[in-house]
Amino acid sequence: MTTDASAAAQAFAPARLTMARELAGLRKRELAEAIDRTAAAVSQYELGQSRPSAETLTRCARVLEVPVSFFTVGRPQLHLDTAHAHFRSLRSTTAAQREQALAHVELLWEVTEHLDQVIELPPVELGLPLDIPHGGPVDTARMVRKAWNMPTGPAVHLVRNLEARGIVITYIPAVDSETIDAFSSALHGRPMIALTHKGNPMRQRFSVAHELGHLLLHPEPAPGNPGNEREANVFAAEFLMPAKEIRDQLPSAADIPALKQLADKYGVSTSALAYRGKDLGAYSESTLRRTIATLTRLGWRTHEPVHSGYPGEQPELLRLAVDLAAASGLPLRRLAERLHIGLPRLRALIGSADARPRLRLIHGAG
Predict the structure, then answer these.
(1) Where do the HTH cro/C1-type domain residues begin and end (predicted)?
(2) Eight-class DSSP state of 223
(3) pTM of the prediction?
(4) Domains, the chain, ordered by start
């Protein structure tokens, strides 16, 4: 059902305009220029000090690529700010980039709320409670591995394990992957880990383990806190490369082929394994520097080759939940209508490919 722009203007929700603008990655000034209004006017709309006309709201909908009904009241809305999320660095990201990433998680929360009304998502059961710290990062990593019945060997199916234990993992579209690897939040009980489409899938596995460390070690987020970031890295290193078993397998001279083979076995990047060797005392600082310099010249710091084009561990919980909801009477198109967002945006958010065939003209008809 299409909502009339005049009716939408009468039922205007200021926070929805803010959310749509942030989803688009626009500043107020940029939106104002695009809709031929002043930045002060956009600020007044978002603060609820004035109401946009039907014409203005139609322009906003077109620029921000949402139905005009997206701007209406009557739906629960989560508000996240930087203080509620584990961001690795505040210096390397702009406020607009962080707001865009957080807005995607806010919308994802709405998706899960609707799905929870139709199906039962997995309960949050990580083996350790999320609302209290559990000691140091090494001990916590070992406790989690024990709780998951994986005391030795590589941490296989990391993403699948987390999703089975109630954590929602997603790739966020249209967010700058050069400045944001991943971030996480546990607001309102269900933890979420958001990833960007960045390079080496082994590096992304480390990012997932890093965010799991934040969720378990730091109940109160402190974005950009160097101490917290170090602890999350130590957790991820111990979780993915346990000291008791990895130390004796490290090649003595940081041999690149041997390091690569061991890194592939444990599902980590070769550079992460080299740093692990340094932290465990197997390599000197000079050995590490030479190894990292070699990996940099090979281009492996950003695009390390993986066997057989391995795409990495892909989140599936949301896609499977959407499929089950569709079978229970809530097809994807109707879910998009309930959320008042377009179907393409919903597909991108949950990581579901467009099922329509793509055709390409090879040559003209003779």
Answers:
(1) 17-71
(2) T
(3) 0.85
(4) 5-74 (1.10.260.40), 102-240 (1.10.10)
